[in-house]
Design a protein that fits this description.
Layout (H helix, E strand, L loop, with lengths): L19 H12 L2 E5 L11 H13 L4 E5 L1 H10 L5 E4 L15 H10 L3 E5 L11 H12 L3 E4 L3 H10 L3 E3 L17 H10 L4 E4 L5 H9 L4 E4 L1 H4 L1 H17 L1
Parallel strand pairs: 1-2, 1-8, 2-3, 3-4, 4-5, 5-6, 6-7, 7-8
Keywords: Carbohydrate metabolism, Isomerase
Enzyme class: isomerase
Protein name: Putative N-acetylmannosamine-6-phosphate 2-epimerase
């Protein structure tokens, strides 16, 4: 796959001025039909270390991943150093009192991960109220104008996907399907939501959340996803061990 020149890095502390239309096209050409690995770990895990996260990212890229999804500026910076040409979808999870929005909730969070080396800014694009009075329709254009970065909108419903596209999102992901009050009764992956977005919206779409096998990733592509993000099933050692332990304990008790 050719290197994506629009995803090359500026000098430390600088932000590029990009043509957002051209950058969105380059984004899809770089990620199309590929696997993006989410390299994250719980904050209380020994894996939650910049060097370990960077090693996860490098291992993923070595085996053919077309990009990685990374949380926090410190981890993004470490991954950028280890993987200088790999597209990084960056985010910063922040719990802010009074708001349920936690994935890159405010502009200054987006700015921090952009400066750390993220190529694409991922943010919560649900219809929930954002902290600090910011709105999606203001936030996305500001990220474009001031940070020069394309935006991945993490959505939970077709309605939120539509609003994100209207606000200028460059790509949408089914990331929050099943994780909001309006979708908590639904089980990821959001294949039905993915199909609706592909059919009704003219926007690059990434299937993320609940992809637990290669076959499920394949199904997502067959439904029209431009790329697939896999996290826990590949890098979630803490969660996977807990799941095995729980199942084995329950089986023994039977």
């Amino acid at each position: 796959m050719q290197k994506n020149s629009a995803l090359s890095q500026p000098k430390r502390g600088e932000l590029p001025q990009l043509n957002m239309t051209a950058n969105s096209q380059n984004l899809i050409s770089a990620l199309r039909h590929g696997l993006i690995v989410s390299c994250q770990a719980p904050v209380d895990s020994p894996l939650h270390d910049p060097l370990v996260i960077a090693a996860m990212a490098q291992a993923s890229v070595n085996q053919g991943a077309v990009g990685v999804r990374i949380d926090t500026p410190a981890h993004i910076q470490a991954v950028r150093k280890q993987c200088p040409t790999t597209p990084i979808i960056g985010l910063w999870k922040q719990q802010i009192p009074g708001s349920e929005v936690y994935i890159t909730p405010q502009f200054h969070h987006a700015q921090a991960i952009a400066l750390a080396g993220a190529d694409i800014i991922a943010l919560d694009a649900t219809l929930r109220q954002r902290p600090g009075g910011e709105t999606l329709s203001e936030l996305i254009p500001r990220i474009h104008a001031e940070l020069g970065k394309p935006v991945m909108a993490d959505i939970d419903t077709l309605e939120s996907a539509t609003a994100a596209v209207k606000a200028g999102a460059d790509v949408v992901g089914t990331t929050l399907y099943g994780y909001t009050a309006s979708t908590q009764h639904l089980q990821p992956p959001g294949f039905e939501l993915l199909s609706q977005i592909v059919e009704q919206l003219d926007v690059p779409t990434i299937c993320e959340g609940g992809i637990a096998s290669p076959q499920m990733a394949q199904q997502a592509l067959q439904l029209g996803a431009d790329a697939v993000v896999v996290g826990t099933a590949i890098t979630g050692i803490d969660w996977q061990v807990k799941a095995y332990q729980k199942a084995m304990r329950e089986g023994y008790e039977l």
